[in-house]
Amino acid sequence: MAVRNPAAIRNVALAGIAGGGKTTLTERLLFTTGATTRMGTVEDGNTVSDWTKEEQDHHHSLRPSVIHFEHEGHLVNIVDTPGLSDFIGHAIASFPAVETVGIVIDAGRGVETTTRRLMQIAAERNLPRVIIINKIDEAQVNLEELTESIRERLGSACVPINLPAAGRESVINVFDSHDDNAATEFSSVEDAHTAIVEQVVEVDEALMEEYLEAGDPDALDKGKVHAAFEQALREGHLIPICYVSAKTGAGIDQLLHVFASLLPSPLEGNPRTFITEDGSEMQAEPDADKPTIAHVFSIASDPFVGKLGYFKIHQGTLKSKSEIHIGDQKKAIRISHVLRPQGKENAETDAMGPGEIGVIAKVDDVGFDSLLHQGHDLDGLHLKPLPLPK
Ligand SMILES: Nc1nc2c(ncn2[C@@H]2O[C@H](COP(=O)(O)OP(=O)(O)OP(=O)(O)O)[C@@H](O)[C@H]2O)c(=O)[nH]1
Ligand SMILES: [Mg+2]
């Protein structure tokens, strides 16, 4: 049973203040990639993400919602998390399921306490981050000043990977493919390109020397720059800034390119650490042939389907109609299907491999933080507990 190549998977959690536009952005990504044929709105209560009645009544997300789409040959899973402070724990709980956290900033509101907290928590968990400035259509916002204030408050590792075009109807890439003559609202493609390449090469001494000698960011080997880019993300030395409007669609193609082709795959991300029954640490390996390790990061309840357990496969494969063990329970449980979530619609699959995010239904013994595995070799294994946020 063939499973998806983990190199062609990207998992991103969207986190940030309530009302920043994460659910609208998720809806826009689905629409732009053709996964849906119309865009719902939070106001009308018809988005793919906010599928529970409570969410539709409150016009806020209340738990993580998982959606997926295909872009540039990659399967992209998005975890749309709640921003309301009472529910932010659910957002943080989904971080072990992803390789990257996308911090959504409302252009009109800038960096808030929740933004800083989420940035810090993602960093403590060793997760690459990307900043997504949403609502750039709000004309009164000075995006240059906002970018400066983000760099002052969240650090100089935050560097634009694209720039709003003059007029804000689109956004211009400044990292990989770039057109130096394109008109940007502030800075220039050339300056922004140099700035991000300089930030990237700092993590690789040899590449840095090559750059200093050549004096031209485009003279560097593209493969080496890409490897350094992944390393810079992993080390938190680079936090790319992207500009979008979920409302108008500006910047969405560029954001999709960053998500699908530039962010780390499950093979490139920082691996999660687990604790074995005897107390020692082990790191999961995204290898389809190794024993299965799937971690349940969220639980939901559907009035028709019942209990749903959302999991990330950190190692091995999970097949439909197979037997699994939950935590250290002696008895195996037979699951019906491993499903690929799309809001409340869950598509049946035969099997899912390492790096995938899935859901199983109607397994009452599955709880938050449960570990799904097979056989008894991994009894008692659990995700390394992380310090609770202050
Ligand atoms: N002008 C403008 N408004 C937007 C944009 N994106 C979202 N909004 C509006 O902002 C409001 C909040 O959007 P949501 O998508 O619910 O925000 P959220 O981040 O999911 O909020 P929580 O689920 O509470 O965390 C809605 O009224 C959206 O229509 C945008 O790009 N531009
Ligand atoms: Mg939401």
From TrEMBL:
CDD domains: EF-G_bact. The keyword Transmembrane does not apply. One of its GO terms (biological process) is ribosome disassembly. Pfam families: EF-G_D2 (PF22042), GTP_EFTU (PF00009). InterPro entries: EF-G-like_DII (IPR053905), P-loop_NTPase (IPR027417), Small_GTP-bd (IPR005225), T_Tr_GTP-bd_dom (IPR000795), Transl_B-barrel_sf (IPR009000). The keyword Secreted does not apply. GO terms for molecular function: GTP binding; GTPase activity; translation elongation factor activity. SUPFAM superfamilies: P-loop containing nucleoside triphosphate hydrolases, Translation proteins. Residues 7-267 form the Tr-type G domain. Keywords: Elongation factor, GTP-binding, Nucleotide-binding, Protein biosynthesis. PANTHER family: ELONGATION FACTOR G-LIKE PROTEIN, TRANSLATION ELONGATION FACTOR G-RELATED. This is Elongation factor G-like protein TM_1651.
